[in-house]
Write a structure and sequence with these properties.
CATH topology of the largest domain: Calcium-transporting ATPase, cytoplasmic transduction domain A
Strand content: 15-25%
Strand order of the largest sheet: 2-1-3-13-4-11
Number of helices: 8
Largest sheet: 6 strands, antiparallel
Number of strands: 13
Mean pLDDT: 77
Number of domains: 3
Shape: elongated
Oligomer: single chain
CATH class of the largest domain: Mainly Beta
Length: 370
């Protein structure tokens, strides 16, 4: 056996050598402090929380409620994703200056500065500067019901210097658009257009107004087709495609229906009722303890002076009664309501007689809370 010095810890499975009356040699050994606690300052919250959810009676109901609610949210957001994908995959005719041809592109592939052609009845895939239309005076009729709710057609007019452009001579068109910084206004626009040919200024700046701006979300009416230049993107107004809509759009809100607010009041009322039941139970127990329990010597409580004192067990018994009665108010209380409204929203979207006047599609519910 390998000898071990007194001040050194022995290897595993080896006997220890302790020096008597020389405790300083054993400073590396653990002290004599004893701790029987389960937690410390750092491990209390995670370990205690884990312990609370270990019983299946606690975990399963909560998991059911959270699982169903999260599944409902995921399904609703998946429907939004499908709608976004359908819009982004729509096609439009775009002029390619390299090949000098017109090509078909998806809306999501449109970039700033491209010239596109929009047909009658179609929606504008981006915020556009109206260059020309099939009408001789450069006028285009636009419906903006999706933006401001107005069904009356609005008149848009191209500049006199560009209204003669057609799909055959668009290749000769060059210019620069100078415009304001991004903003969410639907009714104002400040900018100018400078026309160029062979990189030499052909004219001075031409003032632009809202009358020559075509916003995404609106559609072309009573006009065979128009040519427009994309100038807004979906993250900065007047710089490429979906800008006006995205600047005015917000993230899907975290809505709460009226019935949920009513449920909150009902739950508060239920807890008030629970507290009242517990208070009445504790009072009755105190009366029973004072008047009846002293004669029941055969119950043999461990601490008779405390058990038979009606003023001492009041708080303790109130807590016990709360624990007993609490399970009468189940945590999945709102699960049935939210699930039923969700199924109702899915069912209502399948009614064929709820048709949109413009598209002819069935009604679509954006949220199960409406």
């Amino acid at each position: 056996m390998v000898p071990v010095k007194p001040h050194m810890k022995p290897p595993p499975n080896q006997p220890r050598v302790l020096s008597v009356n020389e405790a300083h040699k054993h400073a590396d050994f653990k002290g004599n402090y004893v701790s029987t606690t389960k937690y410390n300052v750092f491990t209390y919250f995670p370990k205690a929380l884990f312990e609370q959810f270990r019983p299946i009676t606690t975990f399963l109901p909560l998991a059911l409620v959270l699982g169903v609610s999260m599944a409902k949210e995921a399904l609703e957001d998946f429907h939004r994703f499908q709608a976004d994908r359908e819009v982004n995959k729509r096609g439009v005719v775009v002029f390619n200056p390299i090949s000098n041809t017109w090509e078909r592109k998806q809306w999501r592939d449109i970039v700033v500065g491209e010239v596109i052609k929009v047909e009658k009845g179609s929606f504008f895939p981006a915020d556009l500067l109206l260059l020309s239309s099939t009408n001789d005076d450069g006028i285009a009729y636009v419906e903006t019901v999706n933006l401001d709710g107005e069904s009356n057609l609005k008149i848009k007019k191209a500049l006199d210097q560009t209204k003669g452009l057609t799909k055959h001579n668009i290749a000769t068109f060059k210019g620069e658009i100078h415009c304001e910084q991004p903003n969410a206004s639907l009714y104002t626009f400040t900018g100018n257009l400078v026309l160029h040919r062979d990189h030499i200024a052909k004219s001075g700046p031409l003032a632009l107004s809202p009358a020559c701006i075509l916003l995404r979300g609106s559609s072309l009416r009573n006009t065979k087709s128009i040519l427009g230049c994309t100038q807004m993107d979906q993250h900065g107004r007047h710089h490429c495609g979906a800008e006006q809509v995205m600047k005015n759009a917000t993230l899907p809100p975290s809505k709460r229906s009226r019935i949920e607010h009513q449920m909150d009041k009902m739950i508060l009322l239920m807890f008030a009722l629970l507290f009242a039941m517990c208070l009445v139970g504790a009072t009755l127990f105190a009366l029973w303890t004072k008047n009846v329990s002293p004669r029941m010597w055969y119950l043999a409580p461990d601490n008779a002076p405390t058990a038979f004192n009606p003023s001492k067990p009041d708080t303790y018994r109130t807590l016990c009664i709360i624990i007993i009665y609490y399970y009468t108010f189940s945590s999945p209380y709102g699960l049935g309501t939210s699930s039923s409204t969700f199924m109702a929203a899915l069912h209502s979207s399948r009614f064929l007689h709820f048709l949109r006047q413009l598209y002819g599609n069935p009604m679509a519910s954006k949220s199960s809370l409406t």
